Amino acid sequence: MDRGQVVVAGQPLNDLAAGLGHSPFYVYDRAALGARMSELRGWFPQVAIHYAMKANPMPDVVRFLGSLADGVDVASLGELRSALDAGVDPQHISFAGPGKGADELWAAVEAGVLINVESEQELNTVAAVAIEQQAPARVALRVNPDFELKSSGLRMGGGAKPFGVDFEVAPQVLARMAALRSHGLEFEGLHIFAGSQSLNAEHVAEALTASYELAVRLAPHAPAPLKVLNLGGGLGVAYFPGERHLDLAPISSAMAQIVERARTDFPGAEVVLELGRYLVAEAGLFVTRVVDRKQSRGQIFLVTDGGLNHFLAASGNFGQVVRKNYPVTTCAARVDATDSEPQVWQRELEQVTVVGPLCTPLDILADRMWLPKADVGDWVVVFQAGAYGLTASPQQFLSRLHCIEIFK
Amino acid sequence: MDRGQVVVAGQPLNDLAAGLGHSPFYVYDRAALGARMSELRGWFPQVAIHYAMKANPMPDVVRFLGSLADGVDVASLGELRSALDAGVDPQHISFAGPGKGADELWAAVEAGVLINVESEQELNTVAAVAIEQQAPARVALRVNPDFELKSSGLRMGGGAKPFGVDFEVAPQVLARMAALRSHGLEFEGLHIFAGSQSLNAEHVAEALTASYELAVRLAPHAPAPLKVLNLGGGLGVAYFPGERHLDLAPISSAMAQIVERARTDFPGAEVVLELGRYLVAEAGLFVTRVVDRKQSRGQIFLVTDGGLNHFLAASGNFGQVVRKNYPVTTCAARVDATDSEPQVWQRELEQVTVVGPLCTPLDILADRMWLPKADVGDWVVVFQAGAYGLTASPQQFLSRLHCIEIFK
């Protein structure tokens, strides 16, 4: 990152913004997405990588990652339609989520995607749909493990959870699946997801191994040999000061062992890592313009045209308990002749609070950060903005400016 | 509240929902809004009551409250357009917010609404617009007080804040306003807002009195006699167990004294209470259908078709530090003959966790609450849902079901 001039997808931010003529915006970097995927291929050579599109459902992103990844996971009928529209092969789409409606299950069976069944009731509905459509329904069982991913930002498994069926009762649900085979249910595998957003590689490796072992214990109850074993992910992204990037080496070793064991335990089965945030977070920037600069009792405020209505998570109001600053910088709208020495420019830091334009004290993008001095018309850039950004924000709040998304 | 059958706007919920044929939905109760307004008129007989429409910008609500209240406060160009479209007289619209864009200020001057100026830069922009349009610009100065509303849920004033100009520098900004009078700036008054969502009536009364006294101290610096003195509000709504409804008596006394003093200090000026949440929160319900009922390790989960994508605040992810349950109940979709004795039905309580359909552990509507036993197809009803509901929620998240709003 050059603080004198932020470069986005190989282009100076000012050129990009001038071409766009609109603020605020998100920009997603195709090259960064591709690089992340290549990196994962290197670390996990024999593992199928799926994209959980809830992290960023922008059509260009889904189309691009859909072409690079081995599959796309959807969490609603809307996402299913988007994925199909983006050209993803239904064979490689899986559908998870605890509250699937009958209409959603109908569409999923019709499209021929894999349904991660989350409850016995859902299993019955899927069977009824398969009978009514006289079509096969591809199903996997989502299992709530009996352990948690330690140091997980979001616990998706372990304890009492609304996701999947408890490991303890999975054998009986698998038996029910077997009984329903004659009605068109095609069992394909298991989905076990212990947690997400962990920055502790050992914990992630342990959870993946433990999830694999649960699958081994459940396999004898399965109605058919596993074709797919989705172990979730859990790979965290570093957002905040003091957090370190996840070391993939221990996870890679664990997955290599899992793949090796699966050759014997589940011959021919695909071992899947399903990643959302980890694939897209670092490939996105949120860019917003400074519309006012003011002081209040010694504190400098930059007021921007983008706020929590466009990027709720960066304001600290989406899942965080204690608000922390996302990585943020500023970028001068004009690089004058006097700014030709970026080293000099870089040193002009000042402590500022960046707030959005909403008339609420919740609307903070950066709380007392040291940033390059900025004025009205300059840019504020929020990094790590590729996941859970615009669609995870209350865009109608205060009926303000529309935010756009571009893919470069 | 009859737990056997929730009644909404005088109609059984099931009848209402059957007529609607869609879930989830919000319903806002016209009679409840009217009653709240009448109650306020009783407590604050000589005070102008304004509606801050950011709390609920649904057009029917704005139209109705616009007709009952003495004014509407808008926080963006979008809200301004909605208010005008709802038939609110521009004379009675005021526009506040820290990051107003030049286009917003242009439209505000053009429409002839009162602009609560939040910074010196904004003042300059308004003056430039007035000159360019050769039209008068109605302005008030928003002042950041030098004290806070104690026990306030959201601090809007005191300390370093992005809202308004600090009390200490207000005299010089008022002098600048005086200098700009010849350019079409028409000074109308002051806006002082110390905080919101307080359930301590004494603190609210103190803050209103202190705000009034700031206005008295600033008045000699004003370019013209005050026509309007907007003291904000601060009136809190009880949401959580243990919270008590705000006692309006001490606030009423304080306002009566303020109005009395204003007769001498600011003859002819209107004293304004600007209320958002307090006007609408209790007049709204959020209603969502149970789509699955499941158990996990001894805990019962009801999975609903509405979730944090429709009501983020109820999930605890909008401004709350520690998640608490909103008031929630369930309602049987069918009242059978055996349910004819609601007393019996009422006693069948069970401890459940209500979760939305999103594939994230953040999506909780009620965490281990004792609720009337409910099954698939029954309703979950969230009370106190009239403010900061749908528009303050990430509606696109996970591309799920659309939520509708009705006004009864």
Descriptive terms for the model:
8-stranded mixed beta sheet, homodimer, alpha/beta, 29% helix
Number of strands of chain A: 21
Shape summary of chain A? elongated
Give the oligomer, counting copies of the same chain as homo and different chains as hetero: homodimer
The biggest sheet of chain A amounts to:
8 strands, mixed
Strand percentage of chain A lies at 25-35%
Helix content estimate of chain A? 25-40%
Average predicted local confidence, pLDDT of chain A = 93
Radius of gyration of chain A: 23 Å
Task: Report how far the terminal alpha carbons of chain A are from each other.
Answer: 17 Å
Largest interface: A-B, 72 and 72 residues
Number of helices of chain A: 11
Structural class of chain A: alpha/beta
Low-confidence stretches of chain A: none
